[in-house]
Amino acid sequence: MSLLFNLYANISIGLDADKPFNPAIKDIYIATDTKKIYVCYEKVGFDISTAVFSQSINSQDVSPTDIKFSHDGSKMFEIGENGDKIYEYVLSTPFDISTAVFSQSISTQDSAPSGISFNSGGSKMYEIGAAGDQIYEYILLTPFNISTAAFLLSISTQDSTPRGISFNSDGSKMYEIGENNKKIYEYVLSTPFNISTAVFSQSISTQDSAPSGIVFNSDGTKMFESGFTGDKIYEYDLSVPFDISTATFLQSINTRDSAPRGITFNSDGSKMYEIGASSKKIYEYTLQKVGQWEEYKKNDDLKNYSFAIPFAETTTSASITSSTFSPFYVYTIPLTETKKMLATYTVDILNPSGCETYITINGVQVTPVRRLTADTQLIHTYESELVVKTGDVIAIQARNTIISTVYLRGAALYQKLL
Known about the structure:
mainly beta, disordered C terminus, 0% helix, 33 strands
């Protein structure tokens, strides 16, 4: 008798209610040779290579320079250097520009406003201008309502042609992008979101010779630049979040507009927006989900999560004609911290003359003996919840087989308490 066996598994993460899990993990693979665990993270957005253009709307200004949203996407803001105004829109569907309705505008401080930003709560607004080479700070009495904006103070820029402005998530850092020197400038703020406390710390060169916009992802591990010489959006990886000295250029894509100015994203990076001075439009892109494999480092990512993966792919051939049970497949658990297993083994028999099988763990029988006597293919399944640990040996025992072909396939549900 020839027997072929393949063992596969599901891994179910231990349910620890007091610790979070990472829902971005969508798959897992255990390398049986190195015993290393690899997980596939589903990256949602902030990968411009996956950007697909979806729709556009006309801007209010005939020379728009930047665009931003409120944190919940219910409002959109445009700044333009023709009307020297900041424009506010209301969106009935968050982050869907097709639902944007213009609501109000206010005049800017600068006669060539080129960028706009807000603090996280919308109680402060910032404008950067290329005429006065200044950064302007406003207080908003009603968050994200520009009609309540009151100008507070301004500071000089590093570049003589500043184009864009951005902050890190907690307001302890501010960033300026400048066309004249083709640089990105980083400032440290001793008082968060208070530009009067800003101190210039460092700068790096841009990819584009006419950079126009700058923005970061939410955790500061990615930075994006737009430029209207190359008409591109550029993506950088930052090995230290929000530290531009660690920025490495990753990739770029072409813009829709031949004079792209500002860029921004929705909160999770699944949508990207470009504003263009040539066509006078706001463009919306959808960013697709992609998978990225990484070696798993022990942390809380795998808490409270279940998914199917190949556990092992081992084929064993054997002939068993004895009336005494003998192991035809033996597997030693390689994983650390494996707590329990629900094993399902399926035996396909083609024209058997008789076969009996059962499972042992460390030599102890853990499933009843099952007799397979069908003259045609038969699928038979063992199900048993087994407590196992690293080094435990799973064996499938068989006897009384005469010139038959048996295919055995397995599935095991593992729970790992990490």
